[in-house]
C-alpha cells in the first residue's frame, strides 16, 4: 500500500510529483467493502450478527508505514464500514478504528501464552511477515499478568518479507529461460515464458521455501521438470529439467542467490536493534521470531548463527536466544490479528507509545509582542477582530509532539475556547479544528 502511495503508481486526481490521497483511497475502500461484506455474511450465519451488533475495528500496520498511510487505511475502513452497514455504526468505536503496530500485536499475543519472560526483562520481537519485516525492542512491566511497558528502541523495518523470495525465484527462472523462446512453440497458444515459470511457484512456496535450510545443506540439487527444454550444460539444463544447485563451496549457488539478499536484510535490522539496545545499556537475551517468514528454517538458522556471533563479542558476553515457538511451524500466522484483538480489549494496560505525529488545536491568541513569553509575536502580523476591536494571531497550539512518549492512560488538560459572533447572526456555530503534522514540532505554538 505504501509503495502505491509513495511512488504514485495509481493516479487519477494527482501527479507523480504531487500525489492525491483520493487516488488510492477509493481503491482500498472498494477492496475493504468486499472484505467486510464477506465477513458480515459469515458473522450473520455463524454468530447471529445484526445491524444492532456493536463493532470495534482493530487495525495492524507495519512499523515502516508512514502515519499518512495509516490514516488513509483508517479512512478507507471507516468509509467501507458505513457503506456495508457493518453492525451498529452509530457508536464512536466504529468511527475511530484502533491502530496497533504489527510487532506490538505479535508481542501481546506472545505474552498471553508465554512463561519464558519475566518482569523488567527486555526482549526483541522480530515480526517477519510476507511483505514487511519489523523489529522492535520492548520491556516487560513490573507486575503480573505480564504487560508490555514501553518501546525501548526506535523500531526498524524493511520490505524484505517472504513474498520477495517468490519474486526472486520467478526472476531467476525467467533469466534462465529468457533465450529459450522455442518452448512457446511446444505449449498451447497464449502461453508465455512468464506463465510457464508461474507453474513452478506453488511448489516453491509450499516446499522449498518452507522446508529447506540453506545453512546446513551442501550439494543440494533440485530438478524442475520442463518438457521440451533443450540440454545446456552452462545453464544446467539436463534432459528436460532445470537443475537448481547449492554446492556451498564457492561455486555459483542458485539457492543462496535466492535467499541470501533477504536473509542479510533481516539480519541487518536485527543487528541494528541489538546494537542500539547495547548502547543504551539494555541487556537483550531473547529474540522472538514470529509470522510466516519466521517459520523459514533458513531464516532461523541464519539468525541463530548471527546471534551466536553477537553473544561471543566482548561487549556482549552473554547468550542471546532465538525463540521460535513450540514446533517447526513456529507461532501461528494469526498471532498478529489475535494480538490486535487482545490489545483492543485491554487498552488501559497497553504499553506507552511514541507519538507518530504532532497534534495541535487551532487557536486565536491575543497579540502581545511586548509581553514576556510572547516574543515570537514580534515577527508575526496580527489580525484585528472587529467584534472585540482586539488584535489576534491565529496559531496552532500543539499538545502532542511527534516521538514523545504517551502512556496508555493519559488525559490532556482541557482547553478554554471563546467564540465571538456578531449579534445579528441567526446561527452561531462553534467548532474546533485539530491539526496533524508528521514533522516534529519543537515549540507549543505556530502561527498560521
Q: How would you describe this structure in keywords?
A:
globular; 5-stranded antiparallel beta sheet; alpha+beta; ATPase_NBD; 448 residues; 11 helices; Nucleotidyltransferase, domain 5; 5-stranded mixed beta sheet
Mind explaining what this structure looks like?
With 448 residues, the protein is α+β, with helices and mostly antiparallel strands. The protein has 4 domains: 95 residues, no CATH class; 130 residues, 2-Layer Sandwich (Nucleotidyltransferase, domain 5), CATH 3.30.420; 96 residues, no CATH class; 93 residues, no CATH class. Helix content is 33%, strand content 20%. It has 11 helices and 16 strands. The protein has a 5-stranded mixed β-sheet, with helices on both faces. Strands 11, 12, 13, 15 and 16 form a 5-stranded antiparallel β-sheet that branches. A two-stranded parallel ribbon has the order 1-2. Helix 5 crosses helix 11 and helix 9 packs across helix 10. The protein is globular. The chain starts with a helix and ends with a strand. The mean pLDDT is 84.
Amino acid at each position: 500500500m505504501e509503495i502505491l502511495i509513495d511512488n504514485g503508481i495509481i493516479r487519477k486526481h494527482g501527479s507523480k510529483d504531487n500525489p492525491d490521497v483520493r487516488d488510492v483511497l477509493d481503491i482500498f475502500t472498494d477492496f475493504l467493502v468486499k472484505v467486510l461484506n464477506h465477513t458480515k455474511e459469515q458473522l450473520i450465519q455463524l454468530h447471529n450478527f445484526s445491524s444492532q451488533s456493536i463493532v470495534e475495528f482493530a487495525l495492524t500496520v507495519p512499523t515502516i508505514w508512514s502515519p499518512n498511510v495509516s490514516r488513509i487505511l483508517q479512512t478507507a475502513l471507516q468509509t467501507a464500514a458505513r457503506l456495508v452497514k457493518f453492525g451498529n455504526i452509530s457508536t464512536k468505536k466504529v468511527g475511530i478504528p484502533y491502530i496497533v503496530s504489527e510487532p506490538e500485536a505479535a508481542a501481546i499475543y506472545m505474552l498471553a501464552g508465554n512463561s519464558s519472560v519475566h518482569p523488567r526483562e527486555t526482549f526483541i520481537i522480530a515480526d517477519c511477515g510476507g511483505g514487511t519485516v519489523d523489529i522492535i525492542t520492548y520491556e516487560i512491566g513490573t507486575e503480573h499478568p505480564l504487560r508490555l511497558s514501553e518501546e525501548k528502541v526506535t523500531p526498524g523495518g524493511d520490505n524484505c518479507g517472504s513474498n520477495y523470495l517468490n519474486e526472486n525465484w520467478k526472476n531467476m527462472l525467467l533469466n534462465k529461460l529468457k533465450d529459450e523462446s522455442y518452448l512457446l512453440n511446444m505449449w498451447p497458444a497464449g502461453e508465455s515464458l512468464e506463465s510457464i515459470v508461474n507453474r513452478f511457484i506453488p511448489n516453491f512456496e509450499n516446499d522449498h521455501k518452507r522446508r529447506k535450510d540453506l545453512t546446513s545443506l551442501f550439494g543440494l540439487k533440485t530438478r524442475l521438470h520442463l518438457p521440451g527444454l533443450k540440454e545446456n550444460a552452462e545453464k544446467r539444463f539436463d534432459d528436460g529439467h532445470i537443475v537448481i544447485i547449492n554446492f556451498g563451496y564457492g561455486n555459483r549457488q542458485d539457492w543462496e542467490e535466492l535467499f541470501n539478499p533477504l536473509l542479510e536484510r533481516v539480519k541487518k535490522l536485527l543487528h541494528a536493534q541489538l546494537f542500539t539496545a547495547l548502547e543504551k545499556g539494555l541487556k537483550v537475551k531473547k529474540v522472538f521470531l514470529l509470522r510466516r517468514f519466521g517459520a523459514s528454517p533458513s531464516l532461523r538458522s541464519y539468525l541463530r548463527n548471527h546471534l551466536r556471533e553477537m553473544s561471543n563479542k566482548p561487549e556482549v558476553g552473554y547468550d542471546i536466544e532465538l525463540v521460535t515457538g513450540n514446533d517447526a511451524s513456529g507461532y501461528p500466522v494469526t498471532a498478529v490479528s489475535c494480538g490486535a484483538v487482545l490489545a483492543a480489549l485491554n487498552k488501559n494496560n497497553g504499553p506507552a507509545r511514541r507519538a507518530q505525529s504532532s497534534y495541535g488545536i487551532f487557536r486565536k491568541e491575543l497579540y502581545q509582542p511586548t509581553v514576556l513569553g510572547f516574543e515570537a509575536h514580534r515577527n508575526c502580523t496580527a489580525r484585528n477582530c472587529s467584534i472585540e476591536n482586539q488584535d489576534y494571531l491565529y496559531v496552532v497550539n500543539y499538545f502532542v509532539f511527534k516521538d514523545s512518549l504517551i502512556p496508555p492512560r493519559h488525559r490532556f488538560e482541557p482547553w478554554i475556547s471563546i467564540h465571538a459572533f456578531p449579534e445579528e447572526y441567526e446561527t452561531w456555530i462553534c467548532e474546533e479544528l485539530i491539526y496533524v503534522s508528521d514533522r516534529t514540532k519543537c515549540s507549543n505554538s505556530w502561527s498560521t
